[in-house]
Amino acid sequence: RVELEGRGCTEVWIKGVVVEQVLKVLGVSCGKVLKCINFGPLYFGTSKTEQINLYNESPECMDWVAVLEDNAIGGEMGTDLQGSTDAVLQDLSLKNKDVDISTLILCVPNQGTLLPYEKSLITLCFSPEKFERDFDVNNSSLIQDYVLFLRFETVGKRGGCLQGLSDGATAPTRSHSRHVDLALMGSGFPVMLTFKPGTVIDFKECYLGEQTQVVCAMKNESEFLPVTFSFRKTAHFNISPERGKLKKKSEKEVTFSFSPRQIGTFEMKQIIDIMGTGVDKSNAGVLKTKSFHQIYLTLLGVCKSKRKSVLFTINPGLTPLITNATGQFVARGTGQLSDTAPVAILKSTQTQIHTHRKNRDCKDDALIAFPNDRAASLRPSDWNKKYRTIFTKTERYNYIDPDFAYTHSERLLREECKKYYTDFVSRLRHRRLEKEAARQFHIYNNSVSIGIKPAEGLKSPNISVADFAEEKLQHKMLPLDDNCMLTSRKLAAIASKSTNKGVWSWLSPMPSSTQEKKDCSLTLTHKQLHQIFIGPSTIDFGDVCVYSTTTKELHIINNLSVHIWIQIEMEIMELNETSPLSQVVPPLTKTHIPIVFETKTVGMFKRSFSYKINNQHIGHVLVVANAMPIELQLSTRELILTPVSGCLAGTEFRRTVRLCNPRNHPAAFTWRPVTGDRKSAFTIKPTRGFVEAYSDLECEVVWHPGFHTPETGEFILCVLKGNSINLKCFAKVTIHA
Q: Residue 111 domain-assigned?
């Protein structure tokens, strides 16, 4: 209602539709709401993608994050649902294992912001992995079925975080959570590729230059999936076909050929790559064809040389280019001649057979030439080497051809070039050793290391079970990687570490240290904000009394490994007594801020205040209260006083009335008698006083009998700043004959 000057009073109607934030998962092609996605059967190590639309059906922006529910009721983690009951019961041990399901499901993106009524395309990737069993099973029965739940939550709206932090029913135990669940189903199968006659293929003996073949039958035993294979190249062996695809329950013949290129016994490992689609690590959410599984075959083969008979004939007298030791027989058909003639040499100091006296004292390290090496002795020789005969040790003449031998300047040039490269390699080695020494110096030259040798004189520490539990808990701490998904177990593990610590009642209001300033200036992602709990989001004080002071706690749990800075912007008069309004919360710490509510106005109170995290991220908390006036209640409005049996005549009639205070504030009262023309015969004590909050007080009413005294009376209970109640009193007098 608006009063306008000169125009009277008019009315302005304000209308609005209040809706909740709603997230929906829609199909890309159909546009309908999806409850479940079935990826179907896949080989272990392969991946398959499906796309969905995340829809914000609300008129405000919404920050969301994806959380994998790995401890949800109805989830299956690698159980063969088509197996027998005993097998399924044995597979239940998998659910108790510490399995990180974030490696099975990939959501790209897994966090973001949706504008009002906006759709966002999300890619889900399923990559089954084979889990190790505690017992040996047949490879054909290693079928693992998965039923997982993916929850899309609004950032910060996570329920169940206040359980166990407050006592009694005054503190809320669960906050309202806006989320949508999507069930994900899929199955993992092993590659079942068999070979006949087996994985060891033995070829017959083969001569150099020839080829042997073995035909092998390759069968795909899988009933659900085809298999794509590719044989790697192996020396001396050929496979046809090298690659191909086998349909489910189909068979194909493969020809293995052994074509040796050298003489010997061969035992080769043939690798068969099973091809499939997998996630590209450099580009998350994109699939590429790769080898996800390998099968090994053993190929055995022996290559022999052909025997060739050698015929010896009498030497006709002409000595050929190459002769045997006696020079009598010549072998024909021995193949191609070598490029160099044989030279037989030995140390001259190691033989003294038929040595002439004049040559016995020769001390030089000369080489000894055999008699049949004339073809080699005529070639250009090294100028600094000497040759002597085998028997007489006479120095032989070595012809040096000047057309082919190195000159003195060329020999010096060769030595200089050789020395240059020797020095170059030496300098490289020296430089490498200097760098390694400098690196070792920087490693050990610090304030922590005092130069002692590792483990010298130190005793092994005593390890307890608590140390392993602490290490396991630290391992579960969620990294700040954007590609890593949140899981309910990881969040619970981090939250338990934070809540198990004592509550910090006093914290610094401003970042002071260098580390605190660095941490509090970070811009947090949606996943990091989802690990910070500030709540409850609605603080309900219930029925409170005016002029009273009521306190409720705003809990703050920092599950991150960095400091955060919480600032509360309080501009509400009823909450002005709230303090502190700024706190720096250390990593993995819980604390609380007391929210103080005071009001003088009766009625419903609904206001919200905002807070900031690291002076950037804004959140809101709604405060609700029903302000009630100061009030006292009577146990009865009409009090009948009767005499006690056995009492004497003229005895006073007595009875009590109870005053109850249902409010959280003390109430002051005063009794006022209602008197007419005659004086009242009723009295009440106490006539004034206080009734504490949530307590009661007994007041005694007395009737004094007498001649012509009235048998009725009335009192007014006046409550200071509160209500008034009338109490009527009646004296029941019985006259005995």
A: yes
The DSSP result for 183-208, as a single string, is: EEEEEEE---EEEES-SEEEPPPEET
Is 448 part of a structural domain of the chain?
no
Instruction: Give the DSSP letter string of 543-554.
Output: EEETT--EEEEE
Closest CA to 195 of 172, 220, 174, 167: 220
Number of Cβ within 10 Å of residue 371's Cβ equals: 10
In order of 40, 93, 296, 500, 502, the CA distances from 476 in angstroms are: 30, 20, 37, 16, 21
Shared domain for 297 and 260, answered yes or no, is: yes
Residue 473 counted as domain residue: no
Q: What pairs with residue 276 in β-bridges?
A: 290
Is residue 543 within 8 Å of 665, Cβ to Cβ? no
Q: How far apart are CA 153 and CA 572, in angstroms?
A: 30
- Indicate the range of 279-283, 296-300, 362-366, 372-376 predicted with least confidence: 372-376
| 216 shares a domain with 103 | no
Gyration radius (Cα) of the chain, Å: 50
Tens digit of each residue's pLDDT (9 = 90 or more) over 452-477 = 666 666 677 777 665 554 444 444 44
Say if pTM beats, i.e. exceeds, 0.90. no
Q: What's 32's domain CATH number?
A: 2.60.40.10
> 130-160: per-residue pLDDT in tens?
776 554 455 545 788 888 899 998 886 554 4
